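Hi R.,

Here are the chain sequences for the assembly we discussed:
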Amino acid sequence: MSAVIQDPALIEVNPPLVAGDPSYHDLTEKVSQIVEGDVLKTPTKYWITLSITSIITVLLGAMLTFLVWNGIGVWGNNRPIGWAWDITNFVFWIGIGHAGTLISAILFLFRQKWRTSINRSAEAMTLFAVMCAGIFPLFHTGRPWRAYWLFPIPNTDLNLWQNFRSPLIWDVFAVSTYFTVSALFWFTGLVPDLATLRDRATSRIKQVLFGFFSLGWRGSARHWNNYEKAYLILAAISTPLVLSVHSIVSFDFATSVIPGWHTTIFPPYFVAGAIFSGFACVMTLLLIARWTLNLQELITIKHLENMNKIILVTGSIVGYAYACEFFIAWYSGDIYERFTFLNRAFGPYWWAAWSMYTCNVFIPQLYWFRSMRRNLWVMFIISITTNIGMWFERFVIIATSLTRDFLPSAWGFFHPTWVDMCTFFGTIGLFLTLFLIFARFLPMIAISEVKGVLAVQKQQFKGQREIVTK
Amino acid sequence: MSSRTSLISIQSANPTGKKYWRSLNDLADTAGFREFVHREFPAHASEMLDGKSRRTVLKLMAASFGLAGLTACRRPVEHIVPVINASDAENYAPGEPFFYSTVHSMGGHVTGLLVETHDGRPTKVEGNPDHPHSLGAATAFEQASVLEMYDPDRSRRVLQGGKETRWADFDGAVSKLGFGDGAGLRFLSETVTSPSLNDLRTQALKKFPKAKWVEYDPISRDAELAGTALAFGQQLYVHPHFDQASVIVALDFDFLGLDSPSPFMTKLFSKGRRVESEEDLDKMNRLYAIESQFSITGATADHRLRMKGSDVRQFAMDLAAALGAMPGLNVVGNGGADKRAKFLAALAKDLKSAGAKALVTAGPRQPAAVQAIVALINQSLGSACVTYTKPVIDKSNSGVDALKALTGEMSSGQVSTLFILGGNPAYTAPADLQFVVALSKVQNSIHLGLEEDETAAAAKWHLPEAHYLESWGDQATSEGLGAIQQPMIEPLYSGRTASEIVAVAIGNKETKAHDIVKNYWTAQDTFNKPGNKQDAWKKALHDGVIAGMKTAETLKVTVDAKKLATALAAEPKAPTGGIEVGFYPSSSAWDGRFANNGWLQELPDSMTKLTWGNAAMISPATAKAQNLLDGDIVTLSRGAVKMEAAVMLQPGHADDAISIALGYGRQKCGSVGRGVGFNANLIRTSDAFWFAPGFAIASTGKKHLHATTQEHGVIDSLHASAERQNDRPLAREGTAAEYKKNPKMIEEMAEVPELHSIYPELKYDKGYQWGMAIDLSSCTGCNACVIACVAENNTPVVGKDQVIRGREMHWIRIDRYYTGDENDPQTIEQPIPCMQCENAPCENVCPVQATSHSPEGLNDMAYNRCVGTRYCANNCPFKVRHFNFLNFHKRGDEPVNLTVGTRLAEPEITGLVYNPDVTVRMRGVMEKCTYCVQRIEEVRIHAKVDGRRQIKDGEIKTACQQTCPADAITFGNINDPNSRVTKLKKQERNYAMLAELDIKPRTTFLAKLRNPHPELGA
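And here is the predicted structure of the full complex:
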């Protein structure tokens, strides 16, 4: 048969999503092999990395124990700064989680096929990020052993209803819904892949475990039908969550009276920021995974470039929101509002604010240039600076607004203690540990979904053996 | 047909003859393979469900439903349990408090008090409304004195040579001391205000004619007496009637604060200051303050002139000259300083026009010369606002000079027995007297004291003193009005009073304080109303004042101007040059006696907001000239004396001068106060007791962190401008003249738009609706309310480290703002309790509804529901909510270092001082001002028991309101048109802070009105 030569220029602009024209079996092999190797034969650098992150996770446990034993006073929180690193970290982690859901759900509804090789890890990242986030609302309370009072479950202690007017209760519902739906969605997507692993299992344990979790999948038309329906419904449920969860988290601040918090721009601002930081985090993790596991053909430059475009857009929205806040502060004429923003830029925490502006607004503008968008090192560095900047954004909003509000007599300073820092560091350890375990024991790439893309691609590029990739 | 004779059997029956196999397992036809083939789907893939499986599923569901009944097994122990008052008892209901009258004396000032006791122990101090010096109010020191009694580091043992012994041993040893004619016998006491002790003194000096009794107090009224002696030829007490004066001059006299540890002068002054209605605007008095450091009197003053303490004398002379009080004397001025000249001119004019209603006063830290000039000035003005009385208790051997003479005698070995009755002279005596060295030369030195302090360590004998709340005694005011001091509890540590020691020393028969006091008073002529002595005694104990007692007569005395002029001219010229260091009483430690009192150590100084320490206060200009920053540790040296202290910038302080508070740097002190602050006694010498020029100041390069409750250290321009409140209408003020012209001026300071709510708002118009009005015009910022609240509501002390971290727990705080020029600002003090907002931002955001609104308008706090998310504190625009970041009530003796801060431990005995009507909060829980809801409920219960009657206006007094010497706080029912608080809130100058947030606070403020002289402007 004659080869159908595609226009090379077109291919470069719109390259196939799966490079190297693998067969279906190749695809399965490539992804499953990572999971199926003998545990004891896992490369040493994995074990070293896992040990380090596990130690950091143990550090987290130690910090939380120290905290519950002695009280919130072991952190730097004080009056007036009731929330500092604790809630900054909470919003930071929840924000990171949003990218996964957006990639899984929203891009699915928009039929963006390029999501298929990244959605599994992104969704896993969401789950782990929400777990890390959830630590903070629980432990930042003065009496965490009573935290169950935040849930509308009957209890014999005081048997009172919660205060449904409080944004913190909305948080409880939002975050738990988010976690539940994300977990369900992730798990649903995993089922066919777990069945693949079950069928390829060489040991009895693997067979039983994968078998249990694949829910008896047999790849029948009915099963696929149910699967597609479930996936679609969950995608549809998850989509509004991307917008609602972080909007509700932003209500923690927007509904208060404190200048710097009391602003209606927060919901879209926070959602954009969450997607921004989430994509950056996905980027960081995927770049590392891609490099160590040789997934270059599955996670191509095209995928990464698309993610960078989203980073650019959301970063610009965030920058616009900053400008908006400053403008409205001036335009409103409100003395407290004006002072808050002057204080942000030129007060004692000016360095935090300027880190935030630099990392979130100025640096991502590099992505206007195609060469920047496609450069792996640039991507890696920017993904990290973005997350640093976004952490500072939450800190600037939460803590510095509290340091100087209405009554100058109540103004104060915040200094983090080593417990604050180690706790945050510990959650990073927890996140990485969970991710490493996931990467080792579960399929990182949605095999069945990529096969779907591959099928279409085989039609599109029929006969073409050599395809240009970078 | 197949044969199964071997493990591997190969099926041979096959039409084609060839055997096709898929895998080795297939070939071997193993059981596993057959099973694999038999199954349609891979292992563990689900089969089609059959009936049996469905049933199993249902079984499982039922089981899990059954398991849902399990609950958590162990619950953590609940620590929040309020003590519940038993009610409806006929007479004594266990838990209901009893109030007892007593009286407190400090530095020569006497205040009658009522002490609330629960279950036989004192828990709270209040003022005695029937005592003329209290009129219901009590100062911060008096409020904190109840904690002093429960001080775990209080002296409990009789020590001889540092070793514990018994009272019997002491009594025996004293009886063996033969004093003969008393040539070697000396007594050293604090200011004697007790008539019965004075009587014992007379007996002692009669029995031992050569003995001497010296009174020494590091802070006293000696200068007052020396001044009148100079002016009138005899020692007289000065009684300024601030309530009658329309123009008042305070020459270095912080009479609203530290120079008067009794509420009396503030009560008088506030009478003339208070504006309850429009008519009062014309009657407002005018206060001029001339001082070195910034005191609350200076803050309240309409006009303030800052100058070194030593320069006040010249100013007084110039004022006398300007008024023509001293013939031949001309105004000298100080080199054409415009502000001073203008000030002087306006002041003289004002005083002249006030005439009989003028009142010039000099503070107890100014020398006799200034006191005398002031007496002359008042005389020349024809002032009717000052009267003089002869001391009812002899003061001829009192003061620094008397101590100097005594120390000389001690050093030269003339003293064989010295009784030190209270006080801590080893710490407080002027440095040049070398008191400790002199004390070592006394064979039998006996110290009676509340603490095992510096003097206890230096004396041969130390005896534990009984606290005034646990012992019998009496005190008389400077006018001679007596009151009985009765105990509420047996002495905790078998302590004795000074009277008892003297009685034992002089060999009297009655040696019990009760007998001493009762026998003394029943022997007095004045003590015969009503009826017989026994009834009179009971009434005296009940009332807290001795009824019908004749007080000292006001004397008509005159100053001989010429004689005074000659005497003044003869005085040696004071040295000048260098930095002048001034000493002043500490608002926390006083002279050091309260160093171990956690409530007072944590109390922020009114002006500096400094806690847990003192500082060398210096003006910003001088600091700049000396290249000093806040927190720099400097050495102050003059001749043989020197000390180290950390500098603190004080706007409004006199230039080239430093002020430092006494009472810090104590070493032999309990764990609370040991080593706190810098010891100013090291540089205090007898020749320059209150201010000393000629100090050299040198930076050591070391830095010190001040624990202030208001950001003070970092003055960046953004912060400074807001602290100076240029544009925030929070603490509002205006002049009386402006206000009269435009009563709406206060309201106009903030733009409040029309406020709409998207919800239908609750109408608070039924029953009692509690509200509060705080009059900034009356408030002096004296801090009495802060301590009263701490005492009433069991607020924990958090310690210096936690204050630095910003976690102090005071439910009411006093904000201090400066306005104007950094070097010469005006100041306003604003008490901030919880505003009890009707639309409280804190209530909406609590996820567990731990804070909710009562139908009477209170923002209630349910401690046992609080999980501690702290959103309410974040959302409070006033930041009046306080979180228990650590367990501040954890039992222990030593502070605990958590490496992320230090947590003070609470000794067991501190539990006794707690008010049983108020919960003690555990860690992790939010707390705040409750409008003293326990008091509201107590009165409500009483009203109910009394036949469901209405609660009368003024029947409920919040702790802060009750103790305020200036009556600045008013609490009551705003739903009652006749209540005092409603009338006050109707004033035009009444405003709510942050009203534009639509929070509708129930606590509103009455703007401060100053009454400046038209020529001097605002």
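The radius of gyration of chain B is 36 Å. The CA atoms of residues 114 and 478 of chain B lie 20 Å apart.

Let me know if anything looks off.

Best,
T.
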